[in-house]
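Entry 14. Structure prediction run on the chain below.
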Amino acid sequence: MRVIIVGAGLVGTQLAKYLIQEKHDVSLIESNEERARHASNRLDCLVLHDGGNSLSVLEEAGLDKADALVCVTGSDEVNMIICGLAASRQNGPLKIARVRNDDYVWFNRPGTGRILGIDHFVHPDVEAARTVLDAVEHGAMGEILSFANTSYELGSIDIAEKSAFDGLAVKDFRALVKAESLVTLLERGGECILPSGSTTLMWKDRIYILAKEEDMSGIFTLAGGLEKPLRKIGIVGGGRIGSLIAEGLLKNSEKKLPPVFSFFKSFIPKSIRRVIIIEKDYSLCKDLAARFPEALILNEDISDESFVSEERIDDLDLIITATANQELNMIAALYLKSRGVHRAIAIVTGQGYTAIARKLGVDVVLPRQSVVVDSILSHLMGERVKGVHRIGDGSTDSIEIEISRNAAVLGTSLARLRLPQGALVMLVQRGEESFIPTGDYVFTEKDRIILIAKTGSEADLERLFGVSP
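Output returned:
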């Protein structure tokens, strides 16, 4: 696949790096000289130091032969204009634009015609808020990945010392956990491992468990997690992400929601009684108070220790740090946990801070740029691929694939299938039925399978499942 990326910021370079690892042909356009030089030194692809809003530059980057154009500059309008230029060419590539303006996302809702020929919009704040709401819905006990039209979820769990999982062999897992479930991946010492039956789980391991939603809390408890209803939730930062999270927490079926929430999955608060928003900008606090009359809005600086004590912020069940400063988000989350806050969710910029924040004790860490890249990849990988999500340290992907009618795996049993090393078929959805497959499962056309695989395995998966665009 040939992909042109316009914008060499964190998202653009992270996306380019992933695509290059998967052996795709990538061209990168960046108007900033320093960023273009940095990308050229680090990435094995064509880097053009120029503006993408020029048809001649797009042609130099290979527009005529490109399969996809991804625009992730810092300007919504520039991203849309570039896509419009590409759309003026007959048989142009797939066009994806990152935008932050809610109105642009509204125009791209299902059933609405395309703007400027753009095939997909990606809204960073919506993607981040949706991920946070998923974690809150599951008690903020770890990262949760939900799959459409199935009751199964993939949850990350940190094994506590002397818990039921500490010292347990994977082959004995099902004897302890009666519910249908599967240990899919193990993180240990900075390395992601595909466990076998003889693998022994240990304290400080992080494991990824596939199980039904209703069984996940019991599994967390066996791993040593203490489940507690989230009745009092604090949000640090009332900007775009913070306000979207508040909207998701406070909304109900009778409230008219803003257009952007047509893209959120149904979210039903389980035990939420009170939401507190902490924001140091006074004018923003006034807007928040008008928008969320049912919430308590505090015009304060979270780094002020006296404020934490006076307002009894330390008795929160959950703190969500969603400012634009990732270091502040990490420090505030850790400080409030040390003061007695039960659980913490911190939003960081990229994957690099994720491992640090987890090791320091943050329960759920959301790498914002990685969430955006995952959303873009889900659109890039062809109509048979329904979702791509990087898990663990970013070296492993969870991929949802619909098996094509010409796929090489048709009629083959799982036991006889030779998957790439480090790959595992976790789940099968056939019609309305979802199940964890055993060795005698036979692949059938239109089955939707969910598997994990090491980054770089895409060519082998295309060969097996017919997932090429």
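The longest helix spans residues 124-137.
Filed with the rest of this week's runs.
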